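Loading example: each entry is read as two labelled lines plus one structure line.
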Amino acid sequence: MSVKTIVEADQVVRGRRTKRPKRVNVAAELARIPLYLWAVVVLIPFWWMIIAAFKTVPELMKNPPTFFPENPSADSFYDPEYQGPGGDPDPDHVAGVFQRWEDVAGGFFRFALNSFGITVVVTVLSLLIASLAAYMLTKTAAPGRRTAFVVIISSMMIPWQVSLIPNYLLTSDLGMTDSYLGYIIPGLAKAFVVFFLVQYLRSIPDDLVHAARVDGASEWRIWWQIILPLLRPALAAMAIFVALGEWNNFLWPLIIIRSDELMNLPVALSNLNNAIVSSPGQMGVAMAASLLATLPTVVFFFLFQKHFIKGIALSGIKA
Amino acid sequence: MTVKETAGPERAEAPDTGAAPRRKGRPSHRLQRYGPAYVMLLPFAVLFLVFLIYPLGRSFYYSLTDFNGIKAPELVGLENFTELLVNDERFHKAIWNTVKYVLGSVVLTIALGLTLAIAFKTTSLRDRVLRTVFFLPSVSAGVGVVLVWKWIFMVDSWGLGNTVVRFFGGSNKAWLAEPSLSIPILVTMAVWGGAGYAMVLFVAGINAIPEELYEQASIDGASKARQFWHITLPLLRPVMVFVVITSTIGAFQIFEPVYLLWNRSASIVGGPLDSALTIVPYLYDMGFNRFQLGYASAIAWVLFLIIFLVTLVQLRVTKTFKEF
């Protein structure tokens, strides 16, 4: 990735400004109609999830289904008329999202907190250690750095499932199964982040680093005060990738977490999925929980839309 | 692909990056000079070696053993692999399903992503809004979305899938119980979730093509179709290679939808008649339901080899196209 592509990326991402006066091309507009329909299709699952979360149990099973809730209710989140596991079984009132997992302090909130905390910790730590590695690999002359880089990027070809079973056994040998440590530590070394940061650092001139060394700055200070600020756009892009991946992480916590207190949102949802297989009336609760798990990513996206799109575009351009 | 690139022009400048004149000092001097540099690599290197490289070796060793996680692994040579490749019909089914899924999802995702990119590539408000809409599913990928699809494909007549089918004059379908529908359902979900992502990459690629090329071609009388074939597609090649390879690798590793859509109970994976069984869910089933860890490791290595070979072939094919 050259300096030029980085400079261009911004304009590339925002799209090309059309210079020519617009002529309405009827054929092209007609050809777009199926694509407008696809836009509707893309949104329907979201709509279907939102309205299901606010329907009552009888309305969920109405035929034909309603496309707007007739009497919107928050029962799927918290149903005041639910009698509890010991009470009268009433098919129209089931335990809402916040009335489940009573043995876990905080219930659903706890899983959201787990997901949030783990996402933040993994994102911050993995970016810090990757930026250290990237700085060492590009801006120092330490012997062996090229070999190290080749090994790191070669590892990107290996599907991570190959190390799944040994990592599970290793984590249990270290006594870290069913703990935050066992959940977090094995996934911290992310080769693709190092690769991306190295590509980015290569486009930054070495003069700054040289000058700082001449002035007697230590390597650590150069990393903290010069490299990290320069890396900000690249770190933002990678933070989004890593955070999103961690928020949705499923297979590893599914294997490594045993106790309910440590579940993240995806595992809790899957747990819910197992519980409701036999009873479609509980689907409203599943949709309410899915909504709560998905909403933060969508909000996150709208907050950082530019970084999102720029990060993806850069990852494609440098390839 | 990446190895070659780094050996490119950047390597020539590498000697300039030296912290100090490149003199061969005594090892102790070198350690003194580069000590901090190595310490900086250390956190990543340790985690990388312990949780990536070492497990890789251990996984290869397990793949040659009979191992249930309790008794010590017992070496059996290539028996796991011959069993997998020759006798295990469930695995053959998993491979075949995965190949169908990969082909369907990658081809359709790229075709749709490219179409969307061409149709909505400008900075107009309409294009920006639509691009956001198309991209939204990529943001919300995860277990929650799989549950939404499960809700859509309910067997009951109030399910959205059945309502739509009836609207067009069809009759109710038992979506998730119908073997012939398993792969199409997975492909639909993948295209819904992935086309917007491919679109973003293609928009970046298309907008990086100099406008002058099209202007020149128009003056020379080239039709829009010819401009697409002779300018857009060839210049999009690097982005195309990236999208094809990354989405293929991702598709081979599909797990969550298979695991969540068809679970009648936690220990049954693969859908009706194993029609939705793909490689990673099979690995999970063998490793974590049946505790055949040696066998599951062999599956992981076969997955690796398949992905490796497919990537090599794709790189070779795209290279051939370049030479044309």
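The first helix of chain B runs from residue 2 to 6.
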